[in-house]
């Protein structure tokens, strides 16, 4: 056996001794530094870089919006890469445990902090980065940890903490170039979060100085170009768009940089219309732009709108919607623009609703346009519901009046026309087809291009139009489309053709006719019994009223509101909604300088005790919040008299209150108390009639429940076992509420106490006050400059509902900061636009509660919560 060389044995002993994680010798340090860095740290860092590249590649840029500073972290992407992050954590943890004397321990801690950040374990991430800042001897790593800590604070909107970190870093020396890049980029994110455009631009400019990656530099140049374009600085925007095309950027970004550079340079203002159109046509024809043809057509449509060529623009948008494209968000903008044109220009609210539905299917919930559409589309949904109910029920009721032979003839003709249409489609199958989407939308305005489309949006397809199609096709949108006097028999074969069609791929030669309903299916839609007709009639009556109300108050269309409400009164002369219909007709005629007095006389003659009559008779009375408070006082006084069994005096106070303050949030409570007084001093039939009328008209669910129980008690039927007696329930609720606290009877408040959340300061004014408070925003800005110069407070205003406009000051880091502001506001703020009462009615609200208030639109409901929580 050969003897080992002594030097080799010594070398092995040195190697094995170096494996110890405790001995702080040169060989030990060298071994652990090398192993920690090139094994665990390297592999862990590579996995985190792989995740970040996945986040980047999965993000679909929306070039119509300013690009985000950082690529958004999608929770789905993190979930898909859980195993990757688990492996990275194990590697870094082992590096820390096995190589404790290595100088790469802190770097591995940083990687663990990043893993916690991506997995949304922000508390652990914050603790890790704070630990590194305090304990690490590596200045560069401490700086990098503070910058990442700053990003987390920005995510959480903890702006005081962000400012503290910024201040700390501003005093640090020798921040290296890589950290300066991360620092200025994170500062840009901070200014974006604070909506400070100037600060964001300045920080991005500084970021460029330290950006080494050419693709990243291209992206930052593009963001700067977008910001300057939105600020109206086209010359600067042009220069940055040109710079954004350098550095071999992705083709899509290069395309948009080129397109937008031309727009800010000359396209939007060019007088050479033909040259601009040729430019767009050349872009469209370029084979490199095959997946961007929808963008080119969309941009050309926007240009045509600037030239007031609406019809040309609409046709371009239709073509754009048929292009395949590679970005679903672009389809969202196309549908949104079509919806805006339908809504604002053509007043075609039905088409607008379906276009908005289509837009929502292409936007992501986090997209600004999604939130904007979602928050404003409700009235369109309601409009279409009632419009299509009128069209459908009116037609079905008309059909029910025909003989069975006539009904069968119409069904036969419909089936025949559908067969002819489908055969015509089959004959054209060999022709080149564009990807179709929404022929039924084009049919809304009678503007079919003659091409065959199919509606690729399942949300809109399932809405009213397809149901109506199954019930005998579409009604024409003629000049008198809002009238219901047209019978169903007026529907023509041409109108039936303009209906949603199935995709070619779904319809073969063999089953081409399967989509046509049978004669039995068609005839089964027609109501046969008086009960069925009565149900349709009831829905028709409701829709006439609700549509007329919507058209006046929400769509500002008094003419069409009058048509629907007059149809209601003519068709249903005994409708329970007649007083309110008269009232809206009175307002609509007054707005158009018509015969408003006619409806005032009808209200006084037919409904002398209605609150709508009181309102007409007292046009200059107090309204808004003041009317609510004073009517609350009247209610409390009347209730106390009722409780003391002084019914005549209670009724006198009630009637006086209703006459002086006829339409407030207290009206339904006042009316119910008046009905209760009827139960004490009027005959039984009068009491029963008033109860039934109240039940049909009230919209408050709690009051409705009490009124029903009162009617049950009166008629001798057993009341609900889970409720109190009618009067006892009202009395109990009155004992626990004060007049100033609640306008309606309600259960648990929808608002939550969250003092540590970002807050907003709100001044609420009545709509009329707001229209004359023109100097308020300027006065607030001056007040902020004098008293809060470094707080970066923002002011703005919006209409909350029909009655109130609100002025907003934001942001405040928490409730305490907002309360300090309000105290200063009450003491020192001066303006001719506000009374002392208006100032006293100002309030604070957290971001989360403000979102709830914006949905519920009830300021008094929130004030009740505010007084309990903040005072």
TrEMBL record:
Coiled coil residues, start to end: none
UniProt keyword terms in alphabetical order: Signal
Record has Cytoplasm as a keyword: no
Ranges of Acidic residues composition bias in the record: 723-748
Matches recorded under InterPro entries: TPR-like_helical_dom_sf
Keyword Transferase: no
Descriptive protein name: Gliding motility protein
Organism, scientific name: Belliella baltica (strain DSM 15883 / CIP 108006 / LMG 21964 / BA134)
